[in-house]
Design goal:
CATH architecture: 3-Layer(aba) Sandwich
CATH topology: Rossmann fold
Radius of gyration: 16 Å
Largest sheet: 6 strands, parallel
Strand content: 15-25%
CATH superfamily: Alpha/Beta hydrolase fold, catalytic domain
Distance between the termini: 45 Å
Order of helices and strands: HEHEEHEHEHEHEEH
Number of domains: 1
Number of helices: 7
Oligomer: single chain
CATH class: Alpha Beta
Number of strands: 8
Length: about 220
């Protein structure tokens, strides 16, 4: 059973990459890469479509397909069930460095993380310390999270960051508005988008235009 699950995850990841490459290359000959990091429920249930009793189905395949249709080469594999935040962040760092090593410019790499995936994305941004790296974090309160990361790792994340949170999401609200602070966080520039879908934390379970559109715009910006 474990071997079968691994084969499913591998096939899914390869399909995302190959399918995305065809679309992205057709647009301008220089593909943009997107590393999508899913929430905890996908990892816990080891399924691309797990169901939460309150928030419904997490549509991993639909999310990945949406970004692929928008022209990205997408990596969105399911993490091993026992993967820790730090181990997962280390893996993302390896992915980014592999892309850089293959000649992909940093400005054409975006990390998108929802919920637990956002926590992983932030930890990867702490490790990489790349000011031009694009990172989108869904369902987190950046103004409260960044100081905690500084306490834990003795330095803040770096990069061009987008954070999207929902006013109905009790896991990130209430949340003080983010304000860039070059004196404290010189390598971090962030834009905060606040939406109101009424779907609580489930807003990031499916590719809603309320968060997909600003994320795509952020990743595509020159």
């Amino acid at each position: 059973m474990r071997g079968r699950r691994q084969r499913i995850r591998t096939a899914f990841a390869l399909a995302c990459v190959v399918g995305g490459a065809l679309v992205a290359a057709a647009e301008d000959g220089a593909p943009r890469h997107l590393i999508y990091l899913h929430g905890r429920i996908v990892q816990d249930q080891q399924s691309p479509r797990p169901r939460h009793p309150a928030w419904g189905y997490y549509e991993l395949e639909k999310i990945v397909a949406t970004f692929r249709e928008r022209g990205f080469v997408v990596t969105g594999e399911i993490r091993p069930k026992g993967a820790t935040l730090d181990a997962a962040a280390d893996h993302v760092v390896e992915q980014v460095r592999a892309l850089r090593g293959s000649g992909v410019p940093l400005e054409r790499i975006t990390i998108v993380g929802g919920s637990m995936g956002g926590a992983i994305a932030l930890r990867a941004a702490v490790r990489l310390q790349e000011e031009d790296l694009r990172v989108a974090v869904l369902g987190a309160c950046l103004s409260l999270t960044v100081p905690l990361l500084v306490e834990e790792y003795a330095r803040p994340p770096a990069g061009r960051m987008l954070t999207v949170r929902d006013t109905s999401d009790e896991t990130s609200e209430p949340c003080p508005a983010w304000k860039d602070d070059p004196a404290r966080y010189p390598a971090l520039r962030a834009r905060e988008v606040v939406i109101s879908t009424g779907q609580s934390h489930g807003f990031l379970f499916r590719p809603l235009p309320e968060w997909v559109e600003p994320t795509v715009e952020w990743a595509m910006a020159r």
